[in-house]
Amino acid sequence: MEPQVPKVYDFKAVESKWQRTWESTGIYRFDREDRTRPTFSIDTPPPYPSGELHVGNALNFVYIDFVARYKRMRGYNVFYPQGWDCHGLPTEVRVEKTTGRRKSEFQPEEFLRLCREFTLKWIEEMRKDLKALGLSIDWSTEYMTMDPDYWRRTQYSFVVMYKKGLIYRAEHPVIWCPRCETAIAEAEVEYVSASKPLYYVKFKVRETGEDLVIATTRPELLPSCVAVLVHPDDARYTRLAGKHAVVPLFEREVPILADESVDPNFGTGVVMVCTYGDKSDVKWQKKYSLPVIISIDEHGVMNENAGVLKGLKVEDARKRIAEELREKDLLVKVESILTTVGTCWRCHTPVEILPKKQWFVRSKELAEKVLEEARKVRWIPDYMNKRLENWVLSLDWDWVISRQRLFATPIPVYYCEDCGAELVVSEDKLPIDPRFDPPPFDRCPKCGSQRLRGESDVMDTWMDSSITAAVHAGWPYAMDERLFPADLQPNGYDIIRTWDYYLILRGVALFGKSQFKEALINGMVRGTDGRMMHKSYGNYVAVREVLEKYGADSFRLWAALAAATGQDVRFSWEGIDYAHRFLVKVWNAARLASTYLTTGRVPRIEELSAAELKPIDHWILGELSRSITSVTKYLEEYSFQQAAQELVEFTWHKLCDHYLEAIKYRLSSGDRAAYSTLYTVLLMVLQMLSVFAPHLADEIYSLIFKDKEGWPSITVSPWPRPPVYDEKAASTGALAVALIAEARRAKHDARIPLSTRVKALHIYAGDKAELVKVLADDLKGTLRIDEVFVHTQGGGQRKVPEFPEISISLEV
Ligand SMILES: [Zn+2]
Ligand SMILES: [Zn+2]
Q1: Single residue among 706, 728, 750 that ends a domain in this structure
Q2: Ion ligand 2 neighbours, Cβ < 5 Å
Q3: How many domains does the chain have?
Q4: CA 346 / ligand 1 centre spacing (Å)
Q5: Do the beta carbons of residue 142 and residue 703 sit within 8 Å?
Q6: Whether 265 and 151 share a structural domain
Q7: What span, in angstroms and rounded, lies between the C-alpha atoms of 504 and 513?
Q8: What CATH number should be reported for the domain holding residue 639?
Q9: Is the predicted pLDDT of residue 102 greater than 90, yes or no?
Q10: Which residues, 6 or more positions from 512, have their beta carbon under 8 angstroms from its beta carbon?
Q11: Binding site for ATP, residues?
């Protein structure tokens, strides 16, 4: 008899074969017509087309796939869509770099055409990576947020929220990136701690002529100083409240005010209010109706209000004014302090606060309802809800959704040049690009003017991606209610404050509820050195490199085993190698099994009577039964690490090390019970393993089981149910396993090769003697021993660890 499973596990050939087969047979497509099975819908986060999938993205994707594959086997009609979150500044920057020309040197249409072209190219690359990971995506659902069809949906959502009064346009201080030259949302600010000089600057009190020293990290904002604040209980300064301070160099008088929120322990306890240094300035400006003096422009350059600093970049202006102050003896001292600086998450430039006319979502007004909806979501792990809550409570301002960029969804609004009316385009005229398309209005409905101008700002890309769950369900057209809210929203903890927050916020605004029921949160993948993975650290690993060396199944199994759900994962080649060795072990076991299980009919385990099965068969069925119960429970909880550990432990140690070794002699003698048991156990192991290693599972299934079971793929077979076994016989089987293991160690310690025959094994079993006698054949067959003697009296040289009342001796 020849084994049907080839000797070498050629993962490259196996994986690409099954990826092609799954796609061409369409077995992972969501069946819209099927109303018999329950649905399970996944709101797959559409990745940003960077052109390359790194192992961090891949972790998120394989987690999603574990769930999709498991749910499919549990009988769900699984909806696993795939989109691309195309828009964004990084694309604009890369197009500029690749072409060697600035955005301003292109016609906007030409620049946008290039952005689209490059995006398509990068998507093509990443699509290959996703397929190579063996993800069971329904590719017939693929969409791109830069497509007109998606624009229509994003713009539609804008119009609906505008009509509900949840979107408005106003002038308000916004966070501004001078490098990207656009407004950005609070979620896009990254706070970094940095050591900065703290300047102690001399002001004068006008009424008394005395010096008033103020410590600041931003002396270049002196031209924007509009007030000086002290704490009302600060005895050093109470007498000054109500008087005036004179701003040095600029000789402007500003009020000295007492305010509870001043920290008397920072610097000298006196703080200057500038429009705008930070968010506190915005608050104080409003509270005391202070004037607004802007001295920094959109490019991060000082303007005409800055006097001698005009034309200087912020950093240079800071040095320059420090020199001026020092020369005029207005600088008392400079200290170095550790402080946090808000920076743009895309380009890491320190951000400014500028008052700008922008579009906003009324997110503050919706905060309460967002928190309420977030509490109804099942968070995995559950502490992740706290992160969302903390974030929502930390937000100070409404969400600014307009951006001063090109490659994004246009805002569907025109303005009347005469009366200034905002003309929002009606739903039936979408999609529209007001930057290029003529207005869909004859005249201004307010004043009749025909002088209309299209909005040139575009939307934050989160406006595109915060409606994915609804769009996946078909919204706003033929909405499939079975798919909404999505059953699962899977993402990394780094985007809870964006992805999860914006999805819930928009869900509340548009539908009055969260767009998802469960949030599955994954950790980050760190480099082998434990640091976050970054190209600049030299610890970056592209998923393609791993797939090339080990294949998708090894990577997927490693990802499951590497850390608990939600925890960070440290990348490890050793870990991937371990997963690979396990898969080779399974392959070799299957190869052995295929020698016996592919010729002739293997009886179903149900066809055999309990007496036909040996105790060791009951034992392995009992162990399998427990494993299925555990793996099922863990997968229900999305505890992939525990599920995979259980599966590896069972397969490697119980099935391969013990059971297979113990039945080899029975297999070669044509033992029906051994055939049936091995068939059942191996098939059920492969079924469970197909969640993590689908290619290997399907390959072995097709070689040994397919013609008997008939499922087109093991990955769409019904999830295994724990097999029936006899508890009492199973515990006798456990005794056999322990005796075999100890006798083997005895042979090993006596330096006798396992293949060499020995004369006899003496077992001193006390009152277990009758049980042990039943096992004599298994012991003889497995251990190559001529005679087994079971004694009720006396003791042997070695104790059996699991049954210390039993001991053995070898007779060579
Ligand atoms: Zn920036
Ligand atoms: Zn008008």
Answers
A1: 728
A2: 416, 418-419, 421, 444, 446-447, 449
A3: 4
A4: 5
A5: no
A6: no
A7: 7
A8: 1.10.730.10
A9: no
A10: none
A11: 535
